[in-house]
Structures
1.
Amino acid sequence: MDITTRVKEIFQTLHAIPEVGFNEHKTAAYLAAELGKAGYQIRTGIGGTGITGVLDSGVPGPVIGLRADMDALAHTVDGVEKCVHSCGHDAHCAMVLAAAEVLAEKPPAKGKLKIVFQPAEEKLDGALSMIKSGAVDDLEILFGIHLRPIQEAKSGQATPALYHGASYIATAAIKGAPAHGARPHLGINAIDAATAVVGAINAIHLNPADSWSVKTTKLHAGGPTLNAIPDLAEMAFDLRAQSNAAMDALLAKLPQTIENAAAAIGATADVQIRGGVPAAEYDAGLTAIAGEAIRAVLGEAGLLAPIITPGGEDFHYFTQKIPGLRSAYIGLGCNLTPGLHHPDMTFDTDALPQGVAILLEAVRRASS
Ligand SMILES: [Zn+2]
Ligand SMILES: [Zn+2]
């Protein structure tokens, strides 16, 4: 079977069985079975539903990985909740599996190939759960790929570097003291403290040359009694930065800013960092290889410049948490409309064999 027919066949199979994060049981079973048939040593159930497939040349050399995410998204369409592959993760798995099958027939002469199918990218902790299991510690080189909306890349175009930003969520519980509305001096108004916090958050400054932002996204205070001083305010904050250094600086400033602003009113603050994802940090050499691979498949006109996107991706945990791992992440144009995470998302499936060819070229160049 030719590559175009095969990758489209895999895509159709996965597209028909969308499953949300950590619930990708049918998807994982299918991918593991196909990888096994191709000759890979399979491990399943990694960090939930994750899979690895290894092809060992037996000759010392780099461990090169191809990673795809398996999960779909829940959408409400016409009042009915259903699961849809609206972020194209079915396409990513199809391209990586089809590439893995070709590589099994013509493997690199040295090192190991490691295929990584991860759960729960949309929940932003699927990559972390696989990393924590230790099953991907040996990766030295890792390529990822994601479909791009038509506004960023059209069919026949691809970028060798998709720069996702870092994004984190924090919350704070502001505690004051209750009192009668007639005697505010006997209490501590949590709303006064919370508004002081909003002002202090807006007065945080990092180097304007870096791209970053922090803002209050929730302020909930006061109960059913409207003539009493409220003693509790619940707050949330959204943090963004295009570099991990800027995000580290924001995360370091945030708790003291909130605590000190609340303390100015006499209140206390319990600050929690609820989680997030790091920013993209790519290896220049591998990005160059990804660019050469794109040029080889799509021609000079198809090679786009790096794309900066404010969205987050948990792929970057692999690079951040695995010492020495170098990564590159390709964005594939495919006339995708109306957009990612839209329940009616569609794209030109003729881009799938192009994605497979780019991955194969990238692995060939990285292993030689
Ligand atoms: Zn998504
Ligand atoms: Zn996605």
2.
Amino acid sequence: VIGFGGYVDLINRTSVGGIVAAVTIFAMLTSPVSFLGRMIVFSENSRAAIGRIEEITSPEEEEYVEDGGEALGPGVLSFDHVRFSRGVSTILREITFKASPGEFIGITGRTGAGKTSLVNLITRYYEANSGTITLGGRNIKDISLSALRRSISIVPQEITLLSGTIRENILFGMEASDDRVREAARIASISDFVESLPLKYETPVGERGITLSGGQRQRVAIARAVIRNPKILILDDATSSVDPDTEITIFNNLKEALKGTIILMISLRASALSFADKVLILEEGELREESGGGEEDYVDRL
Ligand SMILES: Nc1ncnc2c1ncn2[C@@H]1O[C@H](COP(=O)(O)OP(=O)(O)OP(=O)(O)O)[C@@H](O)[C@H]1O
Ligand SMILES: [Mg+2]
């Protein structure tokens, strides 16, 4: 009970840090099962808190402005001899590549090759052990985490939808006009489906709403990423449940709508990889090969 009061108080004052702290305190105070129960209460009752998250994460008002007031301009993403290990195992070694604004880069390789780890280094979810990663010529270690993460959208391998409406799931705490929500949905090729529902964007999903298919969930998550107009868009196997034709439509839309964005697409599908300007192939943590898109044999060899 005491924990809950503190929790609500934290939410009301809110910052992402506050929410994280509240969730962490909760995790410590309660058993895992009741923690889950509270999390559902949290997602149902705290829309306002989600609104507050927006103040911190939205690029809307302060176009990629860093805490110091510095703008995080467009620029090349560069990996230079990046090495990453966890414990005794080396997950990535000697990773070197560049990606320019507007480039659509495919990343492929067997399961466990290090694809997700590689993209997690870009958001500094993980820290490289050696080598440097730069964005627009600046070491990402010198960019504030909030500025860095505000400029990157990731569609993860495992999608989580909030218990809420489709609109809320696309906005994910940010504020944007209905037109922008519809436009993001169009780019993600989910607008036709949403508009066929009686409640359209107000349709509840999750616990108390309709159950979306895997491919529909992935497309809602893509719309969520796109509406943030990121400098870097990372798609981690984000269209694996979408049929290949729709997948290509989405890629074409992304390329057209996000002209100055670096798109990094992790995929195992030849049809998706053939869309990329360049494909990076990871084999056991090493970048074996870089090839132009359009070929398919590298997938056959996997
Ligand atoms: N936090 C971690 N601690 C220890 N090992 C990790 C951690 N994260 C990833 N690994 C290991 O690093 C290797 C690469 O994992 P990663 O998730 O990057 O692979 P992946 O290429 O994305 O695979 P998949 O195609 O299955 O998603 C795996 O052997 C994995 O077990
Ligand atoms: Mg992965």
3.
Amino acid sequence: MTMQDSPDRDAAVGDAATPRSFPMARRCPYAPPPEYAELRARGPLVRVQVPSGAVIWVVTRHAEAQQVLTDPRISTDTSRPDFPVLGKREHSEYEQVMRTKLHEGSFIDMDAPEHDIYRRMLITEFTVRRINQLRPGIQQTADQLIDDMLAGGASADLVEAFGLPLPSLVICQLLGVPYADREYFQSRTRRMLASSDDPRGAYEAIMEIRDYLDDLVRRATRDPGDNLIGRLLRGPVAAGELSHNALVNMTFLLLVAGHETTANMIPLGVFTLLRNPDQLAGLRADPTGWPGAVEELLRYLSVVDWVAFDRMAIEDVEIGGQLLRAGDGVFVLGASANRDERVFANADELEVGRGARHHVAFGYGIHQCLGQNLARAELEIAYRTLFERIPDLRTDEPDEALSFKYGGGIFGMNSFPVSW
Ligand code: HEM
């Protein structure tokens, strides 16, 4: 049975209600779409209708989210011709390129065992030990950006001045992008993220970054440096296990997966802490609480909701009392699983001391975020340094005046005016 005809099965599985339309909008910056609580109460897997007209499953609860994300009968391979998409299957230039030129080495979209071959090549780049070596560089970058903010007056847009450039510059350090190229690299990554306002410009920026990375790898081939690209060139590329094209696509994947996510978490986390002054005061009094606060902010904000968690059953499989047929689309609602009261008491409350490390903000299973240790280090340094160096940081804007974005399933802020 395919996705298209599966609505007929609703009566058979006891979910007689007309499927709700998906995706749903966030209406409050502190909460996922309000319908999620109702879906979660209805069941761990619920059927919804996407704009193309197809009916898919959404996974609402924490335990079943982990089950779906670890079941080998559920695929993430978006190059499958019948892989579920939200809208009509358009063969846009962008989609074509993603499925062909950018696919080789882009292991986030691959199933085992192919996925594991590529991921294994990068594991040592993201260990806690390696990330600890990057910390002084991250700290220096954060300090420099704050120096610039302070030198520029008594107010700034935190998205533009800090949230966007910090992760971009950290990825430059990781990949070994030379200083002289950083402005070019940053302007293109910024344009790439403006996708909802300017899809054509975003596509062009993607292709320019891809070409830039291609050239960077070529230059590095002549003289491999002591950085991620250099090590991959000396290791798997030299051994004939990794092609030039796959290496370029892997670096592009790191940029795409690591940039917007972290860039959104920085201003959103600052905003959330400013709106919870008691908890912020506790962290200022005891900075050892920052790592725990980062976990709770990741859970509470769930910036990656369903967009990274699109899956398809490739065999019949029973999960949460529902029978998924081969071909059924299955999207995990990360933001719902992270508010599951079965796992997090007072799930709708921010509690920076709760110990939230078992959230699914970084996913679960074989695709669990490879860059999570780096993301944790960046967020911890970003929040702590900002609040230490600008103790009277504030926003004078009410919630209604702030501009949030949720396009494409990633939650963020378009801008965040702050002053001190
Ligand atoms: C707050 C920041 C971040 C969040 C919330 C986040 C979230 C996620 C999530 C949910 C996944 C799982 C996708 C899936 O199941 O298909 C993922 C995968 C991934 N992330 Fe992150 N991420 C963050 C930062 C980073 C950083 C900084 C990097 C690297 C520079 C990175 C690199 C990756 C890669 C390579 C994958 C694919 C892993 C695989 O398929 O094996 N992420 N991330």
